[in-house]
């Protein structure tokens, strides 16, 4: 299969090329030139996540040198099966995507991308993965590439603007992972990363790639757990399953839309936003108006210009069809707090602030008459956000083992001015022997 740019001005790319490039050369996002069609019967006899993923993704790998490695890539990236279990009222379920090494769903995408890039790595200079992060992405990418020969990870995060626990997690890897705390905002971090990736001179000296959420290597694997969960539900109940997805950049939600389009037994898809309500405003009939983001308790969803909107517009070119494809709603901070408190008291559940937006939206949709089985997507473990969650539930949230091990390690991040030249200096210096690369 070939992959085209959403902007239509870049030549079609092979999968491996699209994975290595991240963004298409015309600034667009890579999308498949056709979508395969499946029915649940196509997955008969495939019971575990790696097998379902390999079957689902096989058409996308066809014709690429990576194709023979796909089953092994899936076994590596999908070794943690997400539990699908009842949640509260009959017909309500939750899909827990936070049992990976950094306790957020981004582990799936980051580990799949890392496994793909490692499988196509060639002899030659090591590759630096540059990632600007406001929290979860950086840790997932760092964990996925940690101690992988031939790779170095450089993380940029805004100093003082991620939670203490997130900062500790970003700085605790060491070895081939370098954490830089930038004296500026997340937007500064993104601007610096973009400038470095667009600097041909720098890239000639220091091979660079990114691992941000627009990468095809993160989008494709996210379809796999929707296929897995909807098939599991279909086999048990012979009914399709709706999903409610906490949404920021729209990567996770878009993966669910793609899985449904490809024929998996998925009914409604609802996108839950925090107070950054660009998407709900569009789906309610307004124009699509990206704007600056505002800070909320669900900080990994603080996005004012969801980058995957371009892929949504590709999937549904007609605005009316686009609006008809999903349900959506915005959940303000006060409602997130009430929801976490309520879920703990009434159901004995402790959603993270992001997951809480989905819990609240499902409650609203049920009140408006949404019928059928519906599944909340739990995107992170609540223990990642103790400052928010613990005062609401009045008790400590036990840490999952992987997170506890990470937090027990020392953590170190170097300060960096919010300046492109300063970053270029660090990137160049880092290629000297012994400076973070494993060969
Ligand atoms: C990144 C993230 C989201 C938003 O996912 P998108 O793919 O950007 O829409 C939601 N919840 C958590 C915990 C996240 O880390």
Tell me what you see in this structure.
The longest helix is centred in the middle third of the chain and has 22 residues, at 216-237. The protein has a domain at 84-104 and 217-398: 3-Layer(aba) Sandwich (Rossmann fold). The protein is α/β, with parallel strands linked by helices. The strands form three sheets. Strands 3-4-12-9-10-11 form a six-stranded mixed beta sheet. The protein has helices spanning 15-21, 49-61, 70-77, 106-119, 136-145, 164-171, 186-197, 200-205, 216-237, 251-261, 278-283, 309-315, 319-325, 333-347, 353-367, 386-393, 401-408, 420-429, and strands spanning 3-5, 30-32, 84-86, 92-96, 127-132, 151-158, 177-183, 208-210, 241-246, 266-273, 327-330, 374-378, 414-417. The protein is globular and about 60 Å long. It is built from 18 helices and 13 strands. It binds pyridoxal-5'-phosphate (PLP). Pyridoxal-5'-phosphate binds at residues 104, 106, 136, 213, 246-253, 300-301, 354, 379-380.
List the helices and strands and how they pair.
Elements: E1 3-5, H1 15-21, E2 30-32, H2 49-61, H3 70-77, E3 84-86, E4 92-96, H4 106-119, E5 127-132, H5 136-145, E6 151-158, H6 164-171, E7 177-183, H7 186-197, H8 200-205, E8 208-210, H9 216-237, E9 241-246, H10 251-261, E10 266-273, H11 278-283, H12 309-315, H13 319-325, E11 327-330, H14 333-347, H15 353-367, E12 374-378, H16 386-393, H17 401-408, E13 414-417, H18 420-429
Parallel strand pairs: 4-12, 5-6, 5-8, 6-7, 7-13, 9-10, 9-12, 10-11
Antiparallel strand pairs: 1-2, 3-4
Helix pairs in contact: 2-3, 2-9, 3-4, 4-5, 4-9, 9-10, 14-15, 14-16
The structure holds pyridoxal-5'-phosphate.
């Amino acid at each position: 299969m070939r992959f085209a740019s959403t902007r239509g001005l870049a030549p079609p790319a092979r999968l491996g090329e699209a994975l290595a490039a991240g963004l298409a050369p015309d600034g667009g996002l890579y999308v498949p030139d056709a979508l395969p069609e499946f029915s649940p019967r196509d997955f008969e006899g495939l019971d575990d996540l790696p097998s379902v993923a390999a079957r689902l993704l096989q058409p996308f790998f066809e014709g690429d040198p990576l194709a023979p490695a796909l089953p092994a890539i899936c076994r590596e990236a999908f070794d943690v099966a997400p539990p699908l279990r009842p949640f509260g009222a009959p017909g309500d379920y939750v899909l827990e995507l936070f049992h990976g090494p950094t306790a957020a769903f981004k582990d799936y995408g980051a580990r799949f991308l890392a496994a793909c890039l490692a499988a196509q790595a060639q002899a030659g200079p090591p590759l630096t993965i540059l990632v600007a992060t406001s929290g979860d992405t950086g840790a997932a990418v760092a964990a996925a590439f940690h101690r992988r020969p031939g790779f170095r990870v450089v993380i940029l995060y805004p100093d003082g603007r991620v939670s203490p626990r997130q900062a500790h997690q970003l700085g605790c890897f060491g070895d081939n992972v370098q954490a830089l705390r930038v004296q500026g905002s997340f937007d500064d971090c993104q601007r610096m990363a973009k400038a470095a990736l667009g600097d041909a001179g720098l890239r000639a000296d220091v091979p660079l790639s990114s691992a941000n959420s627009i990468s095809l290597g993160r989008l494709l694997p996210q379809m796999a757990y929707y296929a897995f969960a909807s098939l599991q539900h279909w086999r048990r109940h012979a009914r399709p399953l709706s999903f409610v997805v906490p949404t920021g950049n729209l990567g996770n939600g878009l993966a669910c839309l793609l899985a449904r389009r490809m024929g998996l037994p998925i009914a409604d898809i609802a996108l839950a936003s925090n107070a950054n309500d660009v998407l709900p405003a569009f789906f309610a009939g307004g124009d699509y108006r990206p704007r600056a983001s505002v800070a909320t308790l669900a900080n990994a969803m603080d996005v004012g210009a969801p980058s995957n909107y371009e892929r949504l517009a590709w999937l549904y070119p007609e605005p009316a069809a686009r609006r008809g494809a999903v349900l959506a709603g915005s959940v303000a901070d006060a409602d997130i707090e009430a929801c976490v408190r309520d879920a703990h008291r009434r159901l004995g559940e402790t959603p993270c602030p992001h997951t809480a937006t989905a819990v609240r939206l499902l409650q609203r949709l049920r009140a408006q008459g949404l019928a059928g089985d519906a599944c909340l997507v739990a995107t992170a473990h609540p223990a990642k956000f103790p400052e928010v969650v613990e005062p609401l539930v009045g008790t400590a949230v036990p840490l999952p083992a992987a997170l506890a091990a990470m937090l027990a390690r020392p953590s170190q991040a170097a300060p960096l001015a919010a300046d492109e030249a300063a970053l270029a200096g660090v990137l160049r210096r880092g290629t000297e022997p012994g400076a973070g690369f494993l060969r």
